[in-house]
Amino acid sequence: MKLLVTGGAGFIGSAVVRLAVARGYEVVNLDALTYAACLENVAEAAESPNYAFEQADIRDRAALDRIFATHKPDAVMHLAAESHVDRSIDGPGDFIETNITGTYQMLEAARSYWTQAGKPESFRFHHISTDEVFGSLGAEGQFTEDTPYDPRSPYSASKAASDHLVRAWAETYGLPVVLTNCSNNYGPYHFPEKLIPVVILNALAGKELPIYGDGSNIRDWLYVEDHADALLTVLEKGKLGRSYNIGGENERTNLELVQTLCGILDRLRPKTPSSNGEGVGHNAPSYADQITFVTDRPGHDARYAIDPTRMREELGWRPSVTVEEGLEKTVQWYLDNEDWWRALQDRKGVGTRLGVKA
Ligand SMILES: NC(=O)c1ccc[n+]([C@@H]2O[C@H](COP(=O)([O-])OP(=O)(O)OC[C@H]3O[C@@H](n4cnc5c(N)ncnc54)[C@H](O)[C@@H]3O)[C@@H](O)[C@H]2O)c1
Hints:
The protein is of the alpha/beta class. It contains twelve helices and 13 strands. The protein has a domain at 2-191 and 221-250 and 302-321: NAD(P)-binding Rossmann-like Domain (Rossmann fold, 3-Layer(aba) Sandwich), CATH 3.40.50.720. It holds the Pfam family GDP_Man_Dehyd.
């Protein structure tokens, strides 16, 4: 089976590419290589004869038509997007253009290719989206696939719009689609502007560990390699036209998450007592001492949580990694892969506070 994966040089797309190639799929990775991309992420897959790369922008219809005609994929896994909420607050235009117009161009290119191929029922357009389209939860409840959409940031609104377009192309033109809406991912190759890598890398650099607001916002964390496995499961076994919520079953407040990361770092890379004698003797110094509370993100959603029943009962899928195991593997990965993250720290906006303009 040949997959056309968009955004395959990004964080989640590259996990999909690595896993799919390892499982014997043929993979064409289509990516514009924006600031968020890194071809290093797919270096191991790029060795395989089953892998091809196409640098292209999903808004460029002519390029998309050429890529479909050249590679003749059996399925599309559409992950290419602008993905950082804070950047969407500072500059929503790119999110509208890539996430909405780009998805429209992908749908039209896929529809044209699929129509010319005789509309095979086996074709799939798998749209990868976020649980943020459902808005913000209070202390109770979880998002199901039937939760009404209520996006609250330019990022989540643009992803909600793209979800609507995909469903419309299925209803109107019969394009065979599946959709997934997933909770927050973390793991290896996470771009160093997102919360977990920021905390690990600031901790190691002796910098403040910024927590937005009071740190009480709750997210449901999923290890990225579990997400990639879930996506291939939905592609293979998901019912046509259906959407699936994918979660980690791991709700944590941001403060709890950062404290857990500090505890792991304290074990794996203990801080040395400072030269002024602080931390010598009774209490060893902890990275948690670097935690700092900063101005909250405007419109910061309080809580996201996924009801995983459909994935579990229809497709027999559940995450394999607990948040404790996943965070430990992630911290170890950043400790072992300094060359990877150092090279990305020079990119525009990385290491600065974004998304406070509103
Ligand atoms: N990160 C999360 O926690 C999370 C959770 C749920 C869903 N998602 C969704 O999963 C997908 C991937 O997220 P990610 O975190 O890997 O994002 P990412 O920002 O790490 O990667 C996005 C990739 O898309 C590429 N891209 C951006 N604009 C493009 C364009 N116009 N044309 C072609 N390529 C372009 C980038 O170069 C990059 O390689 C997104 O659709 C996102 O909405 C992410």
